[in-house]
Design a protein that fits this description.
Structural class: alpha+beta
Number of domains: 2
Order of helices and strands: HHHHHEEEEE
Oligomer: single chain
Largest sheet: 5 strands, mixed, barrel
Strand order of the largest sheet: 1-2-3-5-4
Radius of gyration: 31 Å
Helix content: 40-55%
Number of strands: 5
């Protein structure tokens, strides 16, 4: 019984430590999850200072955290991300980019110069491409661009109409 009384007497220190740990993690992640948990911990601390038993403090902290995570966090995230630049960057910006074959490209390698000026090691999944062939980037695998021909494929010759 003495242990429980000691825990209840010093619970406010535990709440403070928990709040500080959650705030530090929030500063590293910037995702509002640990901010909501720290506010829930603050509610548990207030319950402790008002004399609530430890089990009630934990229930209050959990309930406040859950409500904030479900109700307040989603609109905060939408508002935070509202001003983001929708332009793709890094690897995503290369998908669909046009280029020109510099050295013959086959299933095992070659080089392509992309429209942004970058020269990439490239390969194709279907056939070989000769230098000067226009290509388009399908995807990036490591440091290799997987490309496809971007030139229109000629129609097969049609037989002459014998009645003409």
């Amino acid at each position: 019984m003495e242990l429980i009384e000691t825990v209840e007497q010093w619970a406010w220190i535990g709440w403070l430590v928990l709040i500080l740990v959650f705030l530090v993690i929030e500063m590293l992640t910037l995702d509002f999850t640990f901010l909501m948990l720290s506010i829930g911990g603050l509610a548990g601390l207030v319950a402790d200072l008002l004399g609530a038993p430890i089990w009630l403090q934990v229930i209050i902290a959990a309930a406040v955290s859950a409500i904030l995570l479900l109700v307040l966090r989603p609109p905060l995230l939408r508002r935070l991300r509202r001003g983001e630049d929708p332009t793709p960057s890094n690897i995503d910006a290369l998908i669909g980019l046009r280029g020109t074959v510099i050295s013959s490209i086959g299933a095992h390698g070659g080089q392509v110069k992309l429209a942004n000026g970058d020269i990439w090691t490239a390969r194709t999944e279907s056939g070989d491409l000769d230098p000067g062939t226009p290509v388009r980037v399908n995807r990036i695998e490591g440091a290799t661009a997987v490309v496809r021909s971007d030139s229109p494929t000629p129609l097969p010759p049609t037989p002459e109409d014998p009645l003409a």
